[in-house]
Amino acid sequence: MPSLILLILSAVVTLFLRPHHASPDFIRQPPRPIVNTPHDLPESYSQQVHLSLVGKNYMKVSWVTEESNVPSIVDYGKIAGKYDSSATGETTSYRYFLYTSGEIHHVKIGPLDPATTYYYRCGGSGPEFNFKTPPATFPIEFVVVGDLGQTEWTRSTLDHINASNYDVLLLPGDLSYADLLQPLWDSFGRLVEPYASKRPWMVTEGNHEQEKLPIIYPEGFIAYNARWPMPYEESGSKSNLYYSFDTVGTHIIMLGSYTDFSIGSDQYKWLVSDLAKIDRSITPWVLVLVHAPWYNSNKAHQGEGESMRIAMEELLYNSHVDMIFAGHVHAYERFVSLLISIILLLKTRVYENDIDPCGPTYITIGDGGNREGLAMKYKEPSPSISLYREASFGHGRLRIMNETHARWLWHRNNDSTSVVAEDVWFESLISSHSCSQKIKEKVPQHDEL
Ligand SMILES: [Fe+2]
């Protein structure tokens, strides 16, 4: 009798595991033009203001001024127009062919109280901004969106993101699509300022950040590293191209698809060390972001993440990473994680191209709205581990409710409105009895940074 029940369950499950697609009458959106975001304030005023998390209870404020003698100072406080704290930082600038950047300022402020609105001003004059710090405890809501660009679709996506509250934005690469045209980094900074000045934006690099040129700029990432420095030193990394940080019970690892990831490389050794230090009693959730997807059934960029998957998948599996987000493919795709598997009612995830109850859930979310348009062609038939795939612009929201449960919403851009096309609940691996036993056996290692 039990075997009959299993057989029936298996048949039901097979039906559930068939991939979802958008309804046939849904019309795909063509690319939309690049938007120009001019600077129409005095040259000494801050522009391109954005925030990032930098250590516990601190934020980094980054901005650009066209004038070079503006002080790198941020005045801030909890009441609008009344600044009872201030901090000074540093400036940088860079040249790229004939282009010279404005003065790029980075100032670390804090300690800051959790779940608190702060008002601030950059450089001692100019407009006031405000932001809210992440909460001290669950729940926390992440917006996840890759391949943002600066088109009219980007603007729609940003409006939809801004329409409801969130705590931290995670961007798995491809920001401005400047592609050597440096003024496009400035216009991107101005486009995202109304959003990135209100919440921390944590990013990792995509191929469009490289801007390498043989002999002249062989290392690349000149603009990206100058404009979007992330807290890599705080996580023991030697490079802005990969790092990790903690926020509200979540350890987040930002990997670099475009710097050496092979076994024995600096990034690989850093990842081994970073994973060894995770303490699941402090951060029960572990997320990873990377640009080129390791699992992808779209014909675009097929196989580009494969060598990195081969190098690093086992490390992440053995450390029980909950979810891995990627960009690069301009579409949405989710690889498993439904509360069902072929044999038993387990949480199914992915490892080595197959269903595995203790592997991560993989999500491709390269759908921010860039100028290249959507990746429309998929491999057929759909692999059984791909549960939902759709070539539409949009963004995702991961609301981690507590140590054990998180809700994932994928919002599709339907012209000017945002529609929830996916609504899925995830359980953390720490809450899975069979997987958590392995996690508990691992003792976190703390070494000197
Ligand atoms: Fe990309």
From TrEMBL:
Annotated InterPro entries: Calcineurin-like_PHP, Metallo-depent_PP-like, MPP_PAP, PAPs-like, PAPs_C, PAPs_N, Purple_acid_Pase-like_N
E.C. numbers: 3.1.3.2
Cofactor: Fe cation; Zn(2+)
Secretion signal span: 1-22
UniProt GO MF annotations: acid phosphatase activity; metal ion binding
Pfam name, any one: Metallophos_C
Superkingdom classification of source: Eukaryota
Keywords: Glycoprotein, Hydrolase, Signal, Zinc
Top EC class, one word: hydrolase
Residue ranges occupied by any Purple acid phosphatase N-terminal domain in the UniProt entry: 47-133
Known catalytic reactions: a phosphate monoester + H2O = an alcohol + phosphate
PANTHER family: ACID PHOSPHATASE RELATED, PURPLE ACID PHOSPHATASE
Family per record: Belongs to the metallophosphoesterase superfamily. Purple acid phosphatase family.
Name assigned to this protein: Purple acid phosphatase
Species per Swiss-Prot/TrEMBL record: Artemisia annua
Top-level taxonomy: Eukaryota, Viridiplantae, Streptophyta, Embryophyta, Tracheophyta
